[in-house]
Amino acid sequence: MPPVAIDARAAARPELGGVERWARELCARLPALGDYDVIRPRSRLVHRAGHVWEQLVLPVRAKHAAALLCPANLAPLAARHAVVVIHDAAPLRHPGWYSPAYAAFQRRVLPLIARRARRVVTVSEFSRGELQELLGVDADVVYGGVDARFTPDAAPADLGRPYVLCVASHTARKNLAALVPAARVLAREGIDVVVAGGHRPQFAAEGGLDGLRLLGPVDDARLPGLYTGALAFALPSRYEGFGLPVLEAMASGTPVLAAAATALPEACGGAARLVEPGEWATALPALLGDAEELARLRDAGLGRAAGFTWDATARAIDALVR
């Protein structure tokens, strides 16, 4: 049987969001399960310039593969043997959160990719419903995992002051401005609200972040220590296809607060404090003042995160592809 090809364009990007994490983990783990050919573009083709490579060069290189696994939303339109992982439908549901060119591109190609794919996979039941409604496809659901590096035993980061952590890009859909009122309250107690993540050009930027401590893009090796060093983890996103950072925080023994929106309640599985819009200014300081609830969430989170591994994700994808 010919090998299965993997589109590793997203895996080669220096940025590390959920899509890139999925691509890296599958490229690392699937070759141990069978005959896989990981196809990487040159480094200058991992971003916008890589669309041409993905549409024209990749299908030629993968022509004789048993299947072409595309783990990062996009796939060559010419490939009729693609298995594509579409993480969410946010560009279709909320195009204003993206640059006009990116939203127009997604609106044009995503329906074509979904219809032409041999199989569509998504990352949550929430996203499955979105793809059914907006693209008319029935996707298989496979959850992502948590790397073993995320553990309470990781050496905690020292940022000079106690802090609450958020791992998110500076984009409108992440709703970081919701944390600003809480940050002002906590600053009076000597506690920072720290955001690890940068801005991506395809997303509409979010302003009004004064009061948050912005670390910018953070090397992946620093993340375990940032999680374990935090008093709590907060993710106020308006829209998530799943929300891997909440599981990484849970696996690190860090209590989690997450928006009661889209896929986040599904990802948290009852092991986080879910926050409604407008509640962040009070919910975050209140949790930090409740030692009993912090301990409960820490234990619940460790139990929840233990059920998610990238090896299990890879085995599920391997079974679907074959």
Question: Can you walk me through this structure?
Answer:
The protein is α/β, with parallel strands linked by helices and 322 residues long. The protein folds into two domains: 4-146 and 309-321, Glycogen Phosphorylase B (Rossmann fold), CATH 3.40.50.2000; 163-305, Rossmann fold. It is built from twelve helices and twelve strands. A six-stranded parallel beta sheet has the order 2-1-3-4-5-6.
List keywords for this structure.
2 domains, 322 residues, 6-stranded parallel beta sheet, alpha/beta, 37% helix, Rossmann fold, 12 strands
Structure at a glance:
By secondary structure, the chain is α/β, with parallel strands linked by helices. It contains 12 helices and 12 strands.
Total of helices:
12
Structural class: alpha/beta
Summed over residues and divided by their number, the pLDDT gives a mean of: 94
Proportion of residues in extended strands: 5-15%
Could you state the CATH homologous superfamily of the largest domain?
Glycogen Phosphorylase B
What percent of residues adopt helix (DSSP H or I)? 25-40%
Shape by Cα distribution:
globular
CATH topology of the largest domain: Rossmann fold
How far apart are the first and last residues' alpha carbons, in Å? 10 Å
Q: Main β-sheet: number of strands, strand sense, barrel status?
A: 6 strands, parallel
> How many DSSP E strands?
12
Based on the coordinates given, report the CATH architecture of the largest domain: 3-Layer(aba) Sandwich
Give unreliable regions as ranges: none
What CATH first level of the largest domain would be assigned? Answer: Alpha Beta
What radius of gyration results from the CA coordinates? 20 Å
Order of helices and strands: EHEHEEHHEHEEHEEHEHEHEHHH
Oligomer: single chain
Enumerate the strands of the largest sheet in spatial order, edge to edge or round the barrel: 2-1-3-4-5-6
Number of domains: 2
